Amino acid sequence: MSKNILIIDDSASVRQVVGMALRGAGHQVVEAVDGKDGLAKLNGQKFHLIVCDVNMPVMDGISFLKAAKQQPAYKFTPILMLTTESGADKKQEGKAAGAKAWLVKPFKPEVLLSAVTKLT
């Protein structure tokens, strides 16, 4: 079944790789360049999953996570953090803010797709 997935990452190449993997598996993809843009893209649209970077300009991933979880429509939307951050402190901060999973870059597309299947 096709899922609607929001990708938030300030790196165009990461958005491209993630987008290709997801579209290749038959999913719909919406892209955002940072947390603020990601919040603007939420606008009541149904997302089955949000894939979000941690370190971004304007609004970072943890701030986005907290803001998204404040919205009733996205309170239960699973959010997968896709980041170069592998430290336990950051992971704990992400988990506390509502992240459902943590995938460290560089990642294998099949690992990403497996996570998408488990989370949606």
TrEMBL record:
Domain spans labelled Response regulatory: 4-120
Pfam families xref list: Response_reg
Sequence positions bearing 4-aspartylphosphate: 53
InterPro entries in UniProt: Bact_response_regulator (IPR050595), CheY-like_superfamily (IPR011006), Sig_transdc_resp-reg_receiver (IPR001789)
UniProt xrefs under SMART domains: REC
Annotated GO biological process: phosphorelay signal transduction system
Keywords from the named record: Phosphoprotein
Domain of life: Bacteria
Protein name: Two-component system chemotaxis response regulator CheY
Protein species of origin: Celerinatantimonas diazotrophica
